[in-house]
Amino acid sequence: MSTVFVQLSDLHIRQPGQLTYRRIDTAAYLKKAIQSIVKRQEHISAVVITGDLVDFGRVEEYGHLAKLLEPLSMPVYLLAGNHDHPVHLREVFSSHTYLGTQGPIQYCVDIGSIRLVALDTSVKNASHGELAADQLAWLSHVLDLNKDRSVVIAMHHPPFLTGIHHMDQQNLKVGNDSFKQLIAQHKNIQHIICGHVHRPISIQYAHTVASIAPSPAHQVALDLMPDGPSRWLLEPGAYRVLTAIPGQSIVNHMAYVDSFDGPYPFYENGRLID
Question: Is the pTM of this model over 0.85?
Fold first, then answer.
């Protein structure tokens, strides 16, 4: 039986009534995303949110996020990004015991046939990501314990370059080589899911695939010039739907937040519509 789960990322929720960058109602976009997920929830085992849950790490922002997530009936797993505040996150989401009480927000949970390993790449008061030696040791231990499982690793900062220069300066900066060596040693890692860059991006990484989810709200501009400025735009919001099908690697779909015309049938009375 297939396992289906959703990856949301980079929500950037503010206090009620406040706009991100004075322009974006990120809460309204998240509401649309959640409505879309609820329509599919019969088949969805969990929702994984890969960081930048809120914009400034404030308690009020996490309280707003908690209210917005209430319509989701499946388990929701939260990761920290560079905009997050671990103490405030744990305080507001105290019922999410997998978050732990201190140290990096890293954990393992089962999502159907998948073992999800969540890493905390955030660095206090910094935009880039790091994995310290003790975190890499923890990851090595966890991967050894789960060598007979299909593993998905979730993290906020991508461990690879995207060609979007101003974002590449903020990717995983410390622990990157050791992380890739660990991945290469464990052939059961099915996928590495990341956030941070606000674009749908994927790459072959060691023996597996690493991908970045878009935001349900604003996207980073696709500017591949070396001196490209740091800018955002309101391209369609989206999220990932990952499907683990027995006997093959994970299928990674992108689902758009907004509603569109359709769907309509291709066939009528068994014949292609003319």
Answer: yes
